[in-house]
Amino acid sequence: MDPEDLHEVIETYQRTVAAVVEEHGGVVAQFQGDGVVAYFGYPVAVESAGRDAVSTGLALVHAIRVLSGRFPADMHVPELQARVGVHTGEVVMAAVRAGGASRIADVFGEVPNLAARLQGVAAPGQLVVSDVTHRLVAGYFVTEPMGALNLKGIGREISASVVLRHSSAQRRLETGTLTSFVARHRESDWLYEHWESVQEGPARAVVVMGEPGIGKSRLLREFTGLLSGSGAPVAPIYCGRRDALSPLRPFGALMGEVPVAPAAAANWVTDQASGHPLLLLVEDVHWADPSTIEVVDLVARSGYPVLEVLTARPEFGDEQPSLTPHRLDLARLHPDDALAVVMGVPGGDQLSAEVQQALVERADGVPLFLEELTRAVADGTAELDGGKGIPTTLTEVMTARLDRLGTAKRTAQLAAVIGRAFDRGTLQTLSGLDGATLDTHIQLLIDQAVVEVHDDAVGRMWFRHALFHEATYGSVLRPERRRAHSMVADQIVAAALHEELPESMAYHLGAAGRASEAVDAWRHAARLARRNARFREAAGHERELLELVRHLPEERQDFVEMDARSRLTLCLMAVDQSSPQAMEEGLRVQELARRTGDRRQLLRSLLVLLPWWQADADYRTIDTALTEAFELTAVLEDAGSEMILTQFSGAFRIWQGRVGEGVRILETSNESVGYPLTESLQHVPPQSLAVAEIVLAATRIAAALGLWLLGRTGDADRIRDDTQRFAADRAIPQAQAVTAATGALMAQLDDDPALVLRLTEQIGQFEDEVSTLQWRQWAAVLRWWAGVGDEEPEVPGPLLRPYFLMLMAQHESVPVDHGLTLLDEAVATAVETGEEFCLPEILRVGGPCTGARVILKAATRTPVRRRPRLGDWGWLCWNYVR
User: What is the pLDDT of residues 315-353, one digit of tens each?
Assistant: First the structure.
């Protein structure tokens, strides 16, 4: 075309685009020839940005198609068509000045690039949107999927759709994405029925589940209001995302100080219910630390009149099935109840009936969404004009509300950096505001229902909803966020709270980019957790530490990672001795130790993994690892580790079935260190590390089992009882648990169900991190053998799996065919793992009912000699077959 004609076409095109974009609330960022970049939700966020952008795209496609007819015929303008791409996401907008004049902000992020790639794959006259945008506006437009696209420069597949036209839906009720409506009085009645059930005890836990913003907290406030009015005591605790690694922090806020152990918190709760029923609220339990979950479980199993009402997101039901037998899935509001919410929002009752109804329909039954939308309309920041301006997602509502706070938005952002809960003093230090200005900002946040007062006496506040906190924190730019986190960490140190809040200090140091200090803080937090036997929290702290390793100087990375993974392996095995993650971490420690030439750490990793291989019944690997470990102790001249290895090797031989050898090793080793098996442990001086006493108790009880298997019953019973007294007197729960588990096994071999029940009941009373998964499984089978329990328990394994299979096979409730299958598996497993000392007992049990099949399988092996009182018939049959 003639250059002047082309200029006129492009100029007219640009004016048309600018008019359409402006009409729909967008901003043209820049023109690049015939390309245009436009933003929606800038410079102030609006709730309908996604839907407005797609509507603009359709309008542009139509406007450009008819543009050709506006030019004179002698210009010979061909038919014009536009391609449009829309993507939604977070970006950083940086206002700049050029030549002394302000211009539109530069944008940093993938959104404009991805939108440009989407328009590049569109056909002329097409509007293509990303999957993110499609989810945002689903139901309002007729779309056609394009499938997964590999767009240049994006690095991942993107699902996209072509937008064909507006749908007939003018409200969300017509989009086909609704769930059922349930009136809230029904849920209140459900809660009240459970309250009535605990009036005379025992305790009960119920869970109210639902998506974020569905109204869980409001339902509880309504319910507790009713009970409080009648004088019933209510004890609320609140869990936060950052508390997930802080043991019992939620209970600490309720009790005035953080309890030292779950049992202490559970006792405190039950004490409150000693004279009258108690309602214990646990909000956002999906963020609770493992110890808090354990308290909830302990209280639920008590006989006290306590109703525990937990609120949780849906995923909690999959993670904690034992705590969700009484579960209420909260549905979205019925329109009548939703209208009541509108009327209850300040200014909502002044809106016209038509506007109120439109709000109810557009909110889709989500109470938080409905409240915020009503506030936006009531204060004039959103208008109802044929449905335009109404938010379509909860995120858009919150982002828009933050932008409407004006200068108080920064105050809210700094509060979010502190945490969901924050105090006025720390906030003032961060903001640098004078007291009067800060109070004005805080009052605006309260008026806008962004935050609420938690404890007026000490200036404690918190974000009204976890979603508000997340959205506000996400809006803080990284430099400001790091500065604020750094100041919070310094405040914790200045207030001498770093011992009380080690996880908080570590978190803030890490978020501030002070990686070396954060590593030290997480290491300290993990040490405190281990000291209190809180191994799951300690494992979480070590994982947080590992996330920071890459930010350390390169020469430190391998050593810090190696130490952290070594401690993590110990924590994982304390909870579950056969944890696959423990083995993965342990092998990584070995790899790093060999690479760095750290023989001491390599020895330590072998010491840690030996019990794992034992739990896996992998005695071949144990023999190889013992050989290497003993060589390392010789090179390092480490007599202490050599002693522990010797104790381990003796215990392993006993569990493996090499009983005589194992007992001889333990007798010699204990004699050499001054603790002979013939003497009591009561005179052993306290050890500096509890782990030394745990090893001593574990190997001593293994010696008792070995002596029993050799027929030295008097020595075996004496050592068992002495070891159990030693563990109890030293108050080492891990030692108590291992002695109880092994003692229960000996009691079963002695055919003493009463003692089995007493010892296994002790195992059940220990906290989860003391009584490992392996021992709890042992206890379940042993109790079933002793007549407690209706359902066949899970088979423990692999350690002693043949023995437990045999126990289950002889149970009176097990059908003969199933029993035969269990015995066949027991024999095969014993032969495979080398735990052949189980074979004689399998023979004794299986001989009368299985005939030659089991007998002949067992006869191919040589049994360990053991006490004949277990069944003379079995020994006679064994010798006859041989």
Answer: 676 666 666 678 998 887 888 888 888 888 888 889 989
Can you give the pLDDT at residue 519?
96
Spatial distance between the Cα atoms of 356 and 353, rounded to a whole number of angstroms: 5
Q: How far apart are CA 805 and CA 786, in angstroms?
A: 15
704, 749 Cβ separation under 8 angstroms: no
Residue 511 predicted with pLDDT over 80: yes
> Looking at residue 48, what DSSP letter applies?
T
Which of 764, 759, 674, 771 lies closest to 732 in space, CA to CA? 771
Tokens 């009067």 belong to 436
Q: Give this prediction's pTM.
A: 0.69
Q: What is the DSSP track for 159-210?
A: EEEEEEEE-S-SSGGGTT----EE-HHHHHHHHHHHHHHTTTS--EEEEEE-
- Does residue 290 have a cis peptide bond before it, meaning omega lies within 30 degrees of 0? no
User: Which residue is associated with the tokens 């009541």?
Assistant: 340
- Of 23-32, 520-529, 771-780, which gets the smallest average pLDDT? 771-780
759-774 exposure pattern, b = at least 16 Cβ within 10 A, e = fewer: bbebbeebbbbbbbeb
CA distance 472 to 677: 64
- Residue 178's pLDDT is 35
Give per-residue pLDDT as tens, 689-700.
Answer: 667 788 888 899
Residue bearing the bigger pLDDT, 438 or 854: 438
Q: Is the dihedral of CA 738, 739, 742, 747 positive or negative?
A: negative
Structure tokens at 141: 């437009």
Q: What is the pLDDT of residue 850?
A: 44
Q: Which residues contact 790 (CB under 8 A, 6 or more apart)?
A: none
Across all residues in the chain, what is the average pLDDT?
Answer: 83
Nearest to 619 by CA among 647, 654, 595: 654
Quote the tokens at residue 646: 């010797």
Read off the pLDDT band of 35 (50, 70, 90).
very high
Q: For residue 691, what are its two tokens?
A: 């782990």
Q: Which helix (H) or strand (E) holds 338?
A: helix 335-344
Burial 679-701 (b: 16+ CB within 10 A, else e): eebeebeeeeebeebbbbbbbbb
**Strands, sheet with 306-312, edge to edge from the N-terminal-most edge strand:** 234-238, 278-283, 306-312, 204-209, 327-329
Is the Cβ–Cβ distance between 112 and 37 less than 8 Å?
yes
In terms of residues, how long is the chain? 882
The proportion of the chain whose per-residue pLDDT surpasses 90, expressed as a percent, equals 36
Q: What is the DSSP pairing of strand 327-329 with strand 204-209?
A: parallel
**What is the band of 395 on the pLDDT scale with cuts at 50, 70, 90?**
low
| Angstrom distance (rounded) from CA 263 to CA 98 | 65
Contacts of 193 (CB under 8 A, 6+ apart): none
**Does residue 403 contact residue 475 with C-beta atoms inside 8 Å?**
no
- List the Cα angle 119/123/128 in 5-degree steps: 45
Contact 387, 175 (CB under 8 A): no
CA atoms of 446 and 463, how far apart (whole Å): 9
pLDDT surpasses 90 at 137: no
Euclidean distance between CA atoms 864 and 416, whole angstroms: 66
In this predicted structure, the answer to whether residue 843 has a pLDDT above a threshold of 80 is no
pLDDT band at 436 (very low <50, low <70, confident <90, very high): very high
Higher-confidence residue of 395 and 701: namely: 701
Bridge partners (DSSP) listed for residue 159? 148
Lay out the sheet containing 460-463: strands in order across: 421-423, 460-463, 451-455
In this prediction, residue 390 carries a pLDDT of 38
Strands, E assignment, 19-154? 27-32, 35-39, 84-86, 92-98, 101-108, 127-130, 141-150
Integer Cα distance of 711 and 716 in angstroms: 9
Task: Assign 30 to helix, strand or coil.
Answer: strand
> Could you tell me if 245 and 536 are in contact, meaning their C-beta atoms sit under 8 angstroms apart?
no
